[in-house]
What does this fold into?
Amino acid sequence: MMLCPGGNNRVAFLTILRKEVTRFSRIWLQTVVPSIISTSMYFIIFGALIGQRIGPINDQPYIYYITPGLIIMAIINNAYANVSASFFSAKFQRNVEEILVAPLSPLTILLGYVAGGVVRGISIGIIVALVAACFAPIAVHSWGLTLLIGTMTAVLFSLAGLINGIVATDFDDISIVPTFFLLPLIYLGGVFYSITMLPEFWQHVSRLNPILYMINAFRHGILGVSDIDTRLAILVMAGTIVFLAAIAQYMLVHGTRIKS
Amino acid sequence: MTDSALSIRGLHKVYKSGRHALNGIDLEVPDREFFALLGPNGAGKSTAIGIITSLINKSSGQVQVYGHDLDDSPAMVKSLIGMVPQEFNFSQFETGLNIVLNQAGYYGVPRRQALRKAQQCLEILSLWERRHEQARYLSGGMKRRLMIARALVHEPRILVLDEPTAGVDVEFRRGTWEFLLDMNRNGLTVLLTTHYLEEAENLCKRLAIINDGKIIEDADLKTLIGKLRTQGFILDTRESVRQLPDLPGCRLYTIDDTTIGLELIGNQELNTIFAELSRHNVHITSMRNRTNRLEELFMDLLETHS
It folds into this structure.
């Protein structure tokens, strides 16, 4: 009787991760293809066509300059969307009950979903980077920094997506944040321009945008140029990750918006 | 090891709306028992089940499963229970096999072992042939069987079923009863909630009746049936009956020429009634219950406690 008394969190973590990867792989037309198409469009229009008429920024050709921002944008969108949609669907279809009745810890649930978001974010990031290489064959400045920032960004937005999925009560709630908050913050976070091009006041305002730090730190990793101090960016991201993880863990432990 | 599979003490649940769903229930389910929790809609059955299976937070009280406290050892309590909810709660886009395998994984069963166990569960519930089909393509009965397979894959010691045969056809209901009785004979403790009184009477040795968040009766089936104030029967007679005798301890009434109704009061024995009827030239050829006995008791109890 009883195959695994008290459960086994390592097996449970791998099960959630496997389920998440299977889920987004199965619906690759919705998850993988849109990022490839939209990024290709950005490269063609802003990089190859308009970009040729724009001079270099920070001594980098414009198409090179926007590449790190476009990769990080894909990582942010996919990590966030994967976890928020998956967790909310599990709540909506009530199959979140499958994990609530099982002996896995709240931390395992958190790590499983975040790992799923990271795998999707990084996978799409790599695909976008390969597409980018067709337009802008860049020699990466620092692989270590690039991977660190890419992974931290995916973790951060997976956590944010998880919190969104937990608090969401209908499908509108999981589309409001990406549409009204994430997209403007990404565009105003310096994907297509350097904040040094802005008046001083708007430079200060831009520094309040956390995505600015990720984009610039990632750009530093790939191109070796940045508008901000990379150490400060890593510190801001690490602090945000700890903060979001604490909120998500609290919600899972107390069953916020999951249990009555 | 304790002889009690489930022990509940002073369980309260007050929802955020202020509604008191459970008002301090006590319940004891012995090991290897087939136990039913009966009650009308909104009585608190599903809330009680939700708390036992960690889907709902309790307000106060104690829940122990095989001696393990839900507050102190939630993981141990969870691994002892298999849950079959009332409504389908799996991803409709997953295959049956993946649903069962994932559940085994959540319970910590390693993949290879989970595959063997999933095959076993799906085979005994006649789903193995359709294991690669997405759940949405299965029939209603198959989906319910899939939820039972999923609940059994980690080999729980107690199976909790919330209205397992609500809205299903007779064939499926009978098949499920057979399966559950078989599992119970093999040592599995079964706790089910139902408002099908026939289901409780056919399956359970012991049952509790819940109403307005309180347990109003908790006894074995025979004791409960013994509490019936009256029992109703329908008797078929060999010849037409023109006039019915007036007998002590019962009330007789005519339904048609060859059918009479009998209402037995208190502990009056049927043999005595039949002997008296025979003495008055009323010969009985067959007999059946007028209504479900448990239903009569259930209505009596609800009336008494409302």
Remarks:
- The interface with chain B takes residues 1-9, 11-12, 14-16, 18-19, 22, 26, 89-90, 93-95, 97-105, 254-255, 259-260 of chain A (CB under 8 Å).
